[in-house]
Design brief:
The complex is a heterodimer of chains A (320) and B (403).
Chain A (H helix, E strand, L loop, with lengths): L14 H8 L3 E6 L21 E6 L2 E10 L13 E8 L4 E5 L13 E8 L6 E7 L7 E3 L2 H18 L3 E4 L3 H5 L13 E3 L1 H11 L4 H4 L1 H7 L9 H6 L10 E4 L4 E10 L8 E15 L2 E12 L7 E9 L1
Parallel strand pairs in A: 6-8, 9-11
Antiparallel strand pairs in A: 1-2, 3-4, 3-6, 4-5, 6-7, 10-13, 12-15, 13-14, 14-15
Chain B lengths: L6 E8 L13 H16 L8 E5 L10 H9 L5 E5 L5 H14 L5 E8 L11 H7 L11 H5 L9 H15 L3 H15 L14 H6 L2 E3 L2 E2 L9 E9 H5 L6 E10 L15 H12 L8 E3 L5 H10 L8 H7 L15 H5 L6 H13 L13 E8 L4 E9 L1
Parallel strand pairs in B: 2-3, 2-4, 9-10
Antiparallel strand pairs in B: 1-7, 1-8, 4-7, 5-6, 8-11, 10-11
Helix pairs in contact in B: 1-2, 7-11, 7-12
The chains are: A alpha+beta (320), B alpha/beta (403).
Chain lengths: 320, 403
């Protein structure tokens, strides 16, 4: 997930709630004067105004009060959660919590369904959000949704997929076979890479492009229209080399392969720092030239969940 | 208790809704001065008649504090009553009753209620991305310690669409849901807009099929059930009976009002499908000595079709859970048996920021004054107006009556 997603900033009042979530425990304030349960955390009871409030552990079970499935991200940074299953859960203690549902299909969601808590670690420092799933679901009570964990999980999956895919071998000088690779259909998605601030800073140093929108998270949080820093387009472009892509073919028999540059290079959408990216490709054209066979591979790199590519690159490769 | 009906809307001015990209940029102070001059001209009154000002505090471009004093100085007004209103979409309704109450208390005789909603020119250090930055979290506070910043935004609970959608989903679970009836609200209002050259969607007919085929934004709300934000701005002048007597138009007396709010996120409502417009409207009708069936038109705040549906029910125009049937069985157009949002509503007129709600107030005044042109109601003496802010979290109602 993008680092520019809004994150909770615990206060002195709320810290016990957030700290408990890190331990996989749900703790909410309870009024000892009138018995009222309180959410979100406050130091007073929002029924009787008493300050005789203490923290108590609760089961995390409740029912779905209402929900919606958002088809357009409520903020661009939530593109990797599409469609967003936004929910209001009413705990059995009576308090309501704004949250999201995980591990349930859209078609299963019903107002009134029983739900249980899921503790979702979203940042390497342990920051944990409270999500919910169906009470009957065989779904882990604790998740690790840090960008690193998500990228590693899909990396292993794509590696296995690529290993299992039969790769068609095509001789570079077999014009008909090469032309048969041309397709309107993109390959499946590649593995994923996290574009974090450290990577962006390293690229800024190498390239000399240290414009604040890339390198100054504090200023970018205040002034960038994206709520934080974004990666250089050129960085995202070259990260294509890091992505394992299930192309499904391998060109053979050539003496030399030349990266001839790009016919078209566009950066239509930003990549906020902390985003996961992945790519897919298709052979756009194959042309027999006097010096060899020229293949144009259209590679598009996207932030995970975003339909709009962050990089469109028509890569020209000459086989000789 | 309440108003005696001694204050009236006597003049109005409203910018034609325009897309932000093509609308003129004006400082808010300049818009206030311009709208004031136009509203005075409409009323047939002099600048010297004005001695009260109600203005928006939040989203005022040139200042965040001391707004009324700055505006009074800029315009050249001497004020006996000054007020800012911070009630989102029900700011307009809230302005009108506050002005009427101040007049009935004898504080002042003529109050300018004004909401500039065109964008201001960019400053030397500002760039066009300023708008995008300012709008990233919409009406949500990201301040340290703001409950929504801590407990809503990290989950993606933000903006208005999903909150309204969740209310609609819960309504559907409790009472059932008829997408075609919801579409009819938008369609009947569009029919009204086809008679209003000032409306954003004038000349663009709309069918229920188009509404239902439009993109689903957040289940069950389609994009054509959601208002389009536009640039604009509006003002009305509320005046005492004495001043109203020498004004040009038939006055619209403020005979009842109500206001109710208890939360910002509807998740914390006692029951999210029973909205604050209920208590607000009951108070307004009671104050005016009228029942919902007594009004000739309803100008209902319509940021979404679901807002209209719940307002019809909770304000008492039909029983709870009967709203869909009511919509199916009534013609909501200006020529129909339940004239509603006769200017097109904000869905078809356009929503000029917090001035959007003023379009409903001004349409009520225009109909009462008999100046609505092609869409003029044959008989119009009593009009109900509602305002809705946040996610049906702060709501207000007005009863306006012709003399």
């Amino acid at each position: 997930m993008s680092m520019n997603k809004p994150m909770p900033a615990p206060t002195e009042i709320s810290a016990p709630f957030w700290n408990a979530l890190k331990e996989g425990v749900l703790r909410i304030p309870h009024c000892t004067a009138c018995g009222h349960w309180i959410f979100y955390p406050r130091r007073h009871c929002d029924r009787c105004f008493s300050h005789a409030v203490e923290w108590r552990e609760v089961s995390g079970e409740g029912q779905l009060y209402s929900y919606t499935v958002a088809r357009i991200p409520t903020l661009p940074d939530f593109a990797d959660e599409m469609p967003q299953k936004l929910a209001v859960v009413e705990l059995d203690e009576g308090v309501r919590i704004n949250t999201t549902l995980v591990g349930v299909d859209e078609a299963e969601i019903r107002v009134g369904m029983r739900v249980k808590a899921v503790f979702d670690k979203v940042r390497a420092d342990g920051a944990t959000l409270l999500r919910f799933t169906g009470a009957e679901k065989d779904f882990p009570a604790r998740l690790d949704s840090t960008p690193e964990a998500l990228a590693a999980a899909t990396d292993a999956k794509v590696t296995a997929e690529i290993a299992a895919t039969s790769v068609r071998q095509v001789r570079f000088d077999d014009e008909a076979a090469m032309k048969s690779l041309v397709s309107d259909v993109f390959t499946p998605w590649s593995s994923k890479v996290v574009v974090d601030q450290a990577l962006i800073d390293e690229f800024a140093r190498l390239s000399g492009d240290d414009y604040w929108i890339h390198t100054d998270p504090e200023r970018a949080a205040k002034q960038s229209p994206f709520g934080g820093t974004i990666a250089h387009g050129a960085l995202v472009q070259i990260l294509q080399s890091r992505l394992k892509m299930p192309l499904g073919f391998e060109v053979t028999g050539f003496n030399n392969m030349v990266n001839y540059g790009s016919d078209r290079l566009r950066f239509p959408a930003p990549v906020p720092a902390g985003s996961r990216i992945h790519a897919r490709a298709r052979v756009k054209s194959v042309e027999k030239l006097a010096k060899g066979m020229q293949l144009t591979l259209e590679v598009t790199t996207h932030v995970v969940g975003n339909d709009r590519p962050s990089v469109i690159n028509d890569l020209v490769i000459l086989y000789m | 208790m309440g108003l005696k009906g001694q204050a009236a809307i006597v003049g109005a001015a409203q910018y034609r809704p325009e897309k932000y990209a093509t609308a003129p940029r004006m400082f808010h102070l300049e818009q206030v001065a311009d709208l004031a001059a136009r509203a005075l001209q409409d009323a047939g009154l002099q600048a010297s008649d004005l001695d009260g000002l109600v203005i928006n505090g939040p989203q005022f471009h040139e200042a965040s504090v001391f707004v009324p004093a700055m505006a009074a100085e800029y315009l050249g007004m001497r004020l006996n009553f000054a007020e800012v209103v911070d009630l989102g979409g029900t700011t307009s309704v809230g302005m009108v009753w506050r002005a009427a109450a101040a007049i009935e208390l004898g504080l002042c005789q003529a109050v300018l209620c004004v909401l500039p909603a065109r964008m201001a020119p960019l400053g030397p250090d500002e760039d066009p991305a300023w708008m995008a930055r300012a709008m990233r979290f919409g009406g949500h506070s990201t301040a340290f310690g703001a409950p929504e910043a801590e407990f809503d935004l990290p989950y993606g609970h933000m903006g208005q669409n999903t909150g309204y959608a969740m209310i609609a989903q819960r309504y559907a679970a409790r009472y059932g849901y008829d997408p075609a009836a919801m579409a009819k609200i938008a369609v009947d209002q569009r029919t009204n807009a086809l008679t209003n050259p000032e409306a954003m969607f004038f000349g663009k007919p709309l069918s229920a099929e188009e509404v239902l085929a439009s993109k689903m934004v957040a289940d069950p709300l389609h994009v054509l059930e959601i208002v389009m934000p536009v640039a604009g701005g509006a003002a009305v002048i509320v005046a005492s009976k004495e001043v109203a007597a020498r004004a040009r138009n038939r006055p619209a007396f403020v005979t009842g009002f109500g206001e109710h709010l208890a939360f910002k996120s509807p998740s914390y409502a006692a029951e999210m499908t029973e909205t604050p417009i209920g208590p607000a409207s009951r108070r307004a009708f009671e104050m005016a000595g009228l029942k919902p069936g007594d009004v000739d038109a309803a100008q209902i705040y319509d940021c979404y079709t679901i807002t209209v549906l719940l307002t019809l029910e909770d304000a008492g125009f039909c029983e709870k859970g009967e709203g869909m049937r009511f919509v199916r069985e009534h013609d909501l157009t200006w020529r129909g048996n339940f004239p509603m949002n006769t200017h097109g509503g904000q869905l078809s007129f356009g929503q000029a920021g917090s001035a959007g709600g003023m379009s409903q107030v001004i349409e009520a005044f225009t109909q009462l004054a008999g100046r609505a042109g092609d869409r003029q109601l044959k008989r119009c003496d009593r009009v109900y107006v509602s305002g809705t802010g946040g996610v049906m979290s702060e709501q207000g109602a007005l009863i306006l009556q012709g003399a």
